[in-house]
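Cont'd.
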Amino acid sequence: MSDTSKSHGLHLGLICVLALAYFVLPAYHSGNLASVMVIAIYAMGYNLLFGYTGLLSLGHALFFSAGLYGLGLMMHLADWTPLPAFAAGLIAALVVSAVIGFLILRTTGVAFMIVTLMFAQAGYLTILYFGKYTRGDEGFALQQASRQIAGYDLTDPGVRYYCALVLFSVTLLGLAYIIRAPFGRTLVAIRENEERARMLGYNVTAIKLKAVIVSGVVSGASGATYALLFGYAGATFATVQYSIFPLLWVLVGGAGTTVGPFVGALFMFYLIDYASGKTEAYLLVVGVTLVLVTLFLPHGIVGTIRTRFLRWLP
Amino acid sequence: MILTTRGLTKAYAGVKANTDVDFDLPAGQTRAIIGPNGAGKSTFVGMICGRIPATRGTVTFDGQDVTTLPAHKRIERGMAYTFQITSVFPGLPVRENVALAARRGLGRNKAAVRNKTDEVLSRLNISDRADQMAGDLSYGHQRILEIGMGLAQEPRLFILDEPTQGLAESEVEDFNTLIKTLDAETTILLIEHNMNVVMEVAEYITVLDQGMVLANGTPQEIRANAAVQEAYLGSGHA
């Protein structure tokens, strides 16, 4: 079996397992898994830029919340139905990532990290400034009555689970395709040796901008999905914490692997869930675990499996 | 002329690395640029391929002024460049390194990219290493790989910055043979310290000294040039 068919097998297998898991898992865990799939979309978007292109952004909460508010505000203030509002979320993320990408790609390295952080902070403050519409930190809920697509009630746990699964699957397979395509190979080339890529005739800045946009739109799709399925939009999602989360998920799961972001998000979700049930000092447990993972699995969970055992892992 | 420079100058904070370099390279020629350390050779080819912006002067490639074009556009027009310090994609397989070079020109035609990649790998006798990570190759093989990446681009002007640096004697001989076979296919501009290589492969030599052209001539003429001997070869050179 070729490496490509093994990759397909892995991705389709994961999707099948998730599809069946709903019938097996207790309601509590299938609810959690729906959240994990949505945040894994965010992590996968982040991974395209960080894991594959080698650009470390500290401001992806901006793209996530562009999608979140793009959908949320249209449904909340303009009474749009979910599908057009979802499109609005994607367009908001597209516009924000194109404009921000154009500006931030003038910097590299540490400056890039700082500038992305600053823009995200500016985005957060903008949301607070327009508190009349966004309701700031308090946020707003989307009414159950409005969260329906073609007669399906997105607040129903089953519908929500499969809606999350569909979007997760589309993102996973879509990004896996991009990574194998010439565009994706070029991103990896830029990560490995930017100057060499440039001197092979690649317009490195334009390609990186495309990567920022794809990454931003996928992150925005996650934000829009989150608002739609869980019925809430608030400025907390635009804080720096939500820029750090995808970095952690990707680092723990395995940067530059297709399923690493999901594994990382799942691991972190249950780590926090478990630790916070045991002790009030759960962040300490989370911190120590992260230190251990970084020490003993420097390539993340999936990355280490790839390095040690399964070289074909995509 | 495939390449012409006029008045090409680079100043770093007032210190001139190159001053008014006028240079003409006819299509098909194999030209070596020699000169002592700090003569401005790398800066000069850096300005030709666009890695280093010129302070003033012009670069004309294939009849068109490319002075203001960014590097990737010059490469697109048919230049290829190999770095003085080996520069490959260490975390990617050898095959993918070459394919990335071929893909720029051949685009999405997968079969053409594969054929070109196979052709280059077998030409350089590294087909058996195609699936190794480039970073795991020996230094000599990494240099050969980088030349292969240049070949895969099918350049009309192939710029090599000290390609034999750090190679073993036998590898240098292989390199000489390779350059001679390339001679008929493309124009070659070679910065080289190894005088054996220069004398064997170059049809014509340009000597830079202190950022300026000191002499131009055939290998025999350069060997006999008193000023060149003074500046570079040393009086002991026979």
